[in-house]
Each structure stands twice: as C-alpha cells, then as structure tokens.
Amino acid sequence: MRAVILAAGQGIRLRSMIDDRPKGLIEIDGEQLVARSVRLLRNAGIGDVTIVAGHLAEQYAEFCAAHAGVRLVINDAYASAGSMASYAAAYDAGITGELLLLESDIIYEPRALAAILAPDGAATLVSGPTAAGDEVWVHAVDGALRAMSKCRDDLPSSVGEFVGITRLSAAAAASMRGQFADFVAAHGHGRMDYETGALVAVARQSPVSVVVVPDLQWGEIDDERQYARVSSMRWT
To answer: CA 144 to CA 159: how far, in whole Å?
Structure first.
C-alpha cells in the first residue's frame, strides 16, 4: 500500500504564524507534521509516501530530498482548485491502486493508522467530538458513509468527526479520479473537495466503511486556536 499526503494548501488562516512555511511543515513537539506522518506510516509498514504540494512547494522538495522513499508531486492548480485537484495530480502521476490518503495539517496518535488499516476495502476514520472548531461531521448508516457536512444540522445524524485519514481500495481510488473528471466537465472548474465532494460521491456507488474511534486524540491545524490546542497535548 502507498500513502498520499495532500499538502498543496496555502494555509491562509495561519499566515500570521507561518507565512514562511506550508502548514505541513509546522513543528509540534519539535517534529514537523508531515515528518510525524511519514514516521508513523513507516512504523505501520507503509514506506512509499507521496506528498502533493503547491504553495511553497520548494520546501517540500527539500523535505522529500531528505527523506528516503518520499516523493513529490506538484499541483499547479493549488490556488484556484480544491483538494481533489491534488489527489488527481497524484493519481495522474501514477500513484494508483490501494492508497492511504491523509491531510498534511493533522496530528494524530499512532493507533489512528492501526484502526484505518484493520478493515478491508475503502474506509474513512472518524473520531468522537473534539470541539476543536471547523469540524466536518459524518453521517453513516450501518457503518457505511452516507454524507458529510461542516453543518451538523444538515445531516440526519452524526457518528462523529472526519479525521482526514482515508483508505481507498484500487476501485475507490479510480472512482474518485472519475468523480473529479465528471465534476470538472460539469462545472468548468476544479474547486471540488476530496472528502465532502468526491469521497461522498464514491460512497453512493460502492461501500465506504466508517471506522469510529470515539476517544481518538488528534487535531487539525487551520488557525491559531487549533495550533494552541494540539500544542497543549502530549504526543508520542
């Protein structure tokens, strides 16, 4: 299995703190977020890692040069398209088959990977409520993904928060790329999110399991409040 880390975003809400770095290169406890992910992935048996960069891509190029087995793919459309454009860039560069898809601006405990790697087929990781802000809520029926939304009231029910770690079967990986192609053809632009847009669309066609770890310790870093939250936690 390969891993793809989506890291092309501009981190606009964190510019006051990190205008000289992409978000994935922020350090928590002295370790960069993507370096931590690469380390945990290797510990879980996944050594083939691709980072899709855009904003400040030269810094990721330096990171990849310093880490064996980590390659770089560039999303040239990062400023005008959504996160699915980054996934499509990786897929079109030959990163296909069974994949573990991660966001660059998350920090998580090691058992997150153990949980998502346990089931077969496509699956996405969900935690209990974190009150961290900017949550993406997940609606599931009989353990299968049905919908996601940043507005919890838009969903019939919620099983928890989307973490940003998703396992794709080879078929689901291809289907996501197809969903993006259909979206661009229909809308004339690439502003599609990989999770609330493409992954949910894939789940309508074939099952995507929801793996819920209610007490999972993790965090996304989109703003200074979220940075302060994860910085206050103990990490291993």
So the answer is: 11
